[in-house]
Specification:
Length: 155
């Protein structure tokens, strides 16, 4: 009887892990991240966003789609200055300055907390967005060629 319960618990944990892992989205390597970025521009609605996350960590980058009019739409990188990301925020700002990448810092309020966000507007240039996101993942977050990422497109 005890053996049966052990197997039930093991199977339940395995199923839960598969569901939790699947809920995070597909895993992508550095080279295949262009697809989800292009999907955000092509398929996303206004304020849709793409989160690219290192598995099992709190490190992530996000892109958001905006639509101001039929002709004025695109995607923008947005990175929060939160407790976990302060070091990365400063490194990304330095990266932008060093590489002459135009950026802005705006305040956003979320759940009664106001945070600074670093924004980079890519407009419709998904190649540039992919290149800069890839460089941030490698140069700032330390990703290597074997790194895998969750890419979750919302809305």
């Amino acid at each position: 009887m005890a053996t049966t319960w052990i197997w039930i618990i093991v199977i339940a944990i395995a199923v839960w892990c598969l569901i939790w892992r699947g809920a995070k989205g597909l895993k992508y390597n550095l080279e295949s991240l262009y697809g989800p970025i292009d999907d955000l521009l092509q398929l996303g609605y206004d304020t849709s966003f793409l989160v690219i996350e290192f598995p099992y960590s709190r490190r992530f980058v996000q892109l958001k789609k905006y639509i101001n009019s039929d002709t004025d739409h695109g995607i923008e990188f947005m990175f929060p200055k939160a407790k976990w990301s302060i070091k990365y925020f400063d490194d990304i700002e330095t990266f932008c300055i060093t590489n002459k990448i135009p950026y802005s810092i705006k305040k956003n309020t979320y759940q009664k907390h106001t945070l600074d966000f670093l924004y980079i507007d890519f407009a419709k240039d998904t190649e540039r967005a992919y290149d800069i996101v890839k460089r941030i993942l490698v140069e700032i977050f330390g990703a290597d060629e074997k790194a895998r990422f969750f890419a979750l497109l919302e809305r």
